Each structure stands twice: as C-alpha cells, then as structure tokens.
C-alpha cells in the first residue's frame, strides 16, 4: 500500500535529519502496519515532539519542590531529579537566566528566596520561554500572599490552575493576567443556585428560632405576671393578719416572719464593728418609709449604716479602670518574673517547692525589632534555663546573648500582651533557709476560748511588699478578738477568714506576730494558711546588661527598662 520510498519521504519531511536517520534504520526492522505507522508518525510523534515546556515549577534554593506542573508524561522521580539538580547548576556563577544541560534547558527567575522555573526542551524558542516565564512571575504574587515556602504551599492549587491557563500542551496561550484571574474565578450556575437554596434554608431556620424565642419570652412574662399576682394576694393576706394582730397580740409574729423571709434573700454584706461611742458622732438616722424602685439590699445597707456599722462593699473593676493603666512608652521593656508555688509544713520543713521564671521582651516601635539582648545570670546551679525555639541556643550558651536564629528577622512588636517570651527557667529544690517567708501558728485551748498566736519570719534575701496572711477561722457571728497585731487586720465574714496584712517587710521588721481569741475549736481549722506577697529580688538574679542593635543604631546604645518581680502564686502552710 505504501512503498518504502513513500515512508522515507514522510519521515524526512516531518523530522530533523538526525531523527530521520534513526527512524529510517529502525522502522523497517519493526515491521509496522503501514496505516498505523503513518498515523503514528503524523500525529503521535508530532504531539510528543511539539511540546516545548516540560514543566513549570517553584523550588527553593536548596532544591525543595514546592509546586510543579508537568505537561508531559513524566515520573515523579524524573521531575524531582531534574529540579534537585537545578540549584547546583545555578551556583556555578553564571549571570544568565537560563541553563542548558545535555537533555533539557532551565529558564528561571528568582523571586525573593525561591526560584520560578521552566523546564523546556533544547529545541524551544528561548524568547517565547522568557515571555512565558514573565507571565507566570506576574501571576504568582496574585495568588500567594507571601513569597515564601508557607505562602506558596497555601496557594498551591490556585497556582497550578493559573499555570494551566497560561500553558496548554506545552505551549503558551495568548492570555493576560486579568483573563487568567477571570477564568479561574468563574462560577457555575448550578453552584450559585445551590448556594441560594442553602441560604434560604438557613434564613428559614433563623425565623423559626426567632418565633420560638418570642414564644418562650411571652410564656416567661405571663408566668412572672402570675407570680406577682400571687405575691400581691399574699401581701394583702399578710396585712389582714397584721390588722388582726392589733387586737390579737400573737398574730404579729406572722408579719415579722414574712419580713425576715424577704431579707434572707439579700446577699451577705461584709461588715466590721465600729465603736459605739463613735456612732453618736455620725448623722442621725433618717426615718423613711418604703420607696418604690429601691432594692431590699440598699434598704438593708442604709439601715446598717444608720446603726453605726462600717459597710465594705465589693466593687468589681470596670473596663474604664482597666483602661486607665498607661501603655508602655519606653522603646524596650524587659520583664523578669518569677512565680512561687510552695507548700510549708505546719510543724516545720518544706513539703513542695517550685519556682518558674520567664524573661519577656516588649518592643514599642516596629523599626527597633532588629536587636539582641545581653544578660547576666546569678550563677545558681539549681536553676535550669531554657530558651525559646526561635532563639539561637549556641549564642546564649557561649555569650549569654539572646538573639533570633535568623538575624534578618525582627522581634514582634506591639503594646498589647506581656511581650515576647525569650527565656524560661525553673528551680525545684530548696531548703527552708531559702524560703522568703515562714509562718508558725500556735493555737491553744483554755477554758471556753482558743488563743491563737501567729508569727512570721522573713528571709534577709528578699524585701517583701503587700504581704497578706489569710488564716481560716470557724464560722463566727462576730469578728475575733485581736489582742496584738504587727500590721493591719481585717475579718471577712462571708468566707470566715482573718487577713493579716503588712505593707512592707524589710530589715526593720524581719519578724512579727499577731494574737487573737476565738471560741474553742480544733487546731486543724486554722489550716491551710495562704500567703500572698511580691518582691523585686529574684532567685535567678538575672539582669539585662544591654541591648545590641543589629540595624540603624548610628552607634548609640538603645535605652531599655527592666522590671523584676517575684510573686507568690500558690504559697501555703499545710
């Protein structure tokens, strides 16, 4: 049907001389069917050898493949081998934007820390490849928010779809960036219809929920009205009994009992008894009847004030109070904070000891984030330091400098929060001499009274501020009788706790005592004793000696502020 000369003519016309010579040698040896051979030569081979772009990829400078789209049938091992060899070829010092090897050509463009890469055949038109590369370089920032490994991985599928719109069967399509975005963002009519149906169902569900909520509110209002009606009838009944008590004396107890029942619902109020002689100096009580719009709690407070009681109301901090704290104004604020969790035995010794410390950095301006922190530690062998994962551990161990592993990145900035944690440390072993404060409680029963003597001894290592020693007491009707107290005291009747407060403990008052008397109780009632305090001296003795600028300092040493505090987080005598 087809002669050998005809097939030779077709092969010579379709392929280059080198390929034609190879095909003319092997085709007669394979004994192909002429029809199939002509179809294979004219169509399949043309399609295979006409592909000029083999793959479009984004790789890291180490050869890590982030995104790769192949336009020929190529195994994963093959494409990974081609892309892994590319960084080694770039490092040869060439200034071109393409590299040719024995089999393929690399056309590339650096994008920050990555490479946008086209793997093409050596027979491709380099000008067309560069045009294709420029188009892809415009599309990558459109779909990736950040040109780094994380941003590329997040937008991998969108980038592949965009690459397919630019390259089809290995050839560049005549499209613009706007057209590619339009093609990739097209919505189907079925999808819109499905979304409308789902939104209508959601709206219907919300309407049903609103109707149900309104019905529940109406039922609550009706129930409240019914309760009020019952209460008014009971009030009239009570007044009837009170009227009867004018002539029948015992009937008055019903009215007073109902009033006590109403007052029992009022929240308990912390009071401290005042001297009755001082109550005469206060203004005389105002006699007033029942006022509408005034709660029972306010009436009770007014009556207690009129009787000479000192009312201590619990005031919750409002948002305005919290907002009154001034934001930091210093360029660098370093906070050294240690928290104590200690349990002391009532008969002496330490049951448990745990100290955890942190060093945090707060930077006011974003431009000042390129710094390192020089510190000094106290050299306590019991303390183990641990740096943040992003901190250069070797630099800290060798020079006591806290800096990021990547000096080209700044520390986070801002006024909110507690800053950025740089260093942590912990101490879990200590003897009783290293404890900031020890408490001794000696209760003794004598007749119908229990005499309690409490002593504290503070270590000379720390000056303590705002010390509060909370001693639990049995349920008492009146405050305990305090015989002697070095400092101030307050009795919380709601929690039945006696609070002994000392504003400052320093070298002038390293020890102190308090004595009080309560009814006879078991000695275990006075435990556990909770202690709160703060100090400006720490166990670690960590100090910030300076800030090392990495950029734009002009030779000046940055100014910083260091805040150091030791806090008793959970400090008890058990």
TrEMBL record:
Oligomeric complex that consists of at least the alpha, beta, beta', gamma, delta, epsilon and zeta subunits. Its main location: cytoplasm. The chain crosses the membrane at residues 37-59. The coatomer is a cytosolic protein complex that binds to dilysine motifs and reversibly associates with Golgi non-clathrin-coated vesicles, which further mediate biosynthetic protein transport from the ER, via the Golgi up to the trans Golgi network. Coatomer complex is required for budding from Golgi membranes, and is essential for the retrograde Golgi-to-ER transport of dilysine-tagged proteins. GO terms for cellular component: COPI vesicle coat; Golgi membrane. It comes from Brassica campestris. It comes from the Eukaryota. Keywords: Cytoplasm, Cytoplasmic vesicle, ER-Golgi transport, Golgi apparatus, Membrane, Protein transport, Transmembrane, Transmembrane helix, Transport. Residues 215-228 have a biased composition (Basic and acidic residues). One of its GO terms (biological process) is retrograde vesicle-mediated transport, Golgi to endoplasmic reticulum. Residues 329-574 form the MHD domain. Residues 215-297 are annotated as: Disordered. Gene3D superfamilies: 3.30.450.60, Mu homology domain, subdomain B. Belongs to the adaptor complexes medium subunit family. Delta-COP subfamily. It is a peripheral membrane protein. This is Coatomer subunit delta.
């Amino acid at each position: 049907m087809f002669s050998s000369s005809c097939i030779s003519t077709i092969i010579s016309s379709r392929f280059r001389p080198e390929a034609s010579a190879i095909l003319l040698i092997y085709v007669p040896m394979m004994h192909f069917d002429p029809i199939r051979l002509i179809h294979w030569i004219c169509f399949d081979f043309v399609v295979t050898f006409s592909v000029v772009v083999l793959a479009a990829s984004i790789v890291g400078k180490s050869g890590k493949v982030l995104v790769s789209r192949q336009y020929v049938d190529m195994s994963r091992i093959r494409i990974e081998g081609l892309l892994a060899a590319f960084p080694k070829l770039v490092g040869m010092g060439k200034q071109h934007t393409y590299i040719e090897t024995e089999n393929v050509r690399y056309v590339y463009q650096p994008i920050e820390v990555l490479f946008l890469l086209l793997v093409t055949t050596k027979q491709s038109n380099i000008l067309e490849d560069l045009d294709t590369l420029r188009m892809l370089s415009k599309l990558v920032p459109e779909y990736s928010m950040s040109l780094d490994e994380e941003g590329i991985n997040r937008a991998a599928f969108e980038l592949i779809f965009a690459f397919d719109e630019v390259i089809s069967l290995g050839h560049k399509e005549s499209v613009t960036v706007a057209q590619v975005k339009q093609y990739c963002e097209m919505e189907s009519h079925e999808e819109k219809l499905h979304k409308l149906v789902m939104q209508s169902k959601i709206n219907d569900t919300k309407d049903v929920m609103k109707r149900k909520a309104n019905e529940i509110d109406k039922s609550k209002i009706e129930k409240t009205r019914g309760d009020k009606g019952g209460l008014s009838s009971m009030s009239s009944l009570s007044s009837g009994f009170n009227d009867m008590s004018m002539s029948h004396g015992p009937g008055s107890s019903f009215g007073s009992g109902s009033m006590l029942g109403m007052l029992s619902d009022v929240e308990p109020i912390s009071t401290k008894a005042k001297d009755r002689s001082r109550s005469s100096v206060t203004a005389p009580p105002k006699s007033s009847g029942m006022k509408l719009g005034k709660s029972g709690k306010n009436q009770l407070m007014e009556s207690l004030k009129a009787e000479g009681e000192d009312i201590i109301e619990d005031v919750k901090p409002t948002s305005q109070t919290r907002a009154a704290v001034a934001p930091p104004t210093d360029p660098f604020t370093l906070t050294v904070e240690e928290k104590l969790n200690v349990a002391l035995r009532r008969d002496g010794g330490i049951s448990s000891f745990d100290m955890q410390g942190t060093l945090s950095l707060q930077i006011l301006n974003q431009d000042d984030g390129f710094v390192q922190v020089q510190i000094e530690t106290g050299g306590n062998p019991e303390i183990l330091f641990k740096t943040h994962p992003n901190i250069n551990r070797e630099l800290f161990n060798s020079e006591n400098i806290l800096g990021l592993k990547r000096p080209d990145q700044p520390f986070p900035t801002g006024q909110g929060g507690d800053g950025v944690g740089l260093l942590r440390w912990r101490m879990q072993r200590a003897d009783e001499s290293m404890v900031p404060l020890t408490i001794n409680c000696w209760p003794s029963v004598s007749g119908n009274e229990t005499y309690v003597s409490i002593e504290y001894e503070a270590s000379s290592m720390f000056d303590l501020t705002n010390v509060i020693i909370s001693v639990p007491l049995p349920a008492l009707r009146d405050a305990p009788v305090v015989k002697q107290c070095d400092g101030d005291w307050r009795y919380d009747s709601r929690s039945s706790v006696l609070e002994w407060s000392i504003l400052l403990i320093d070298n002038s008052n390293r020890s102190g005592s308090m004595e009080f008397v309560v009814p006879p109780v078991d000695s275990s009632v006075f435990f556990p004793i909770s202690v709160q305090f703060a100090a400006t001296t720490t166990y670690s003795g960590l100090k910030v000696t300076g800030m090392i600028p990495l950029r734009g300092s002009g030779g000046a040493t940055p100014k910083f502020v260091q805040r150091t505090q030791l806090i008793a987080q959970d400090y008890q005598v058990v």
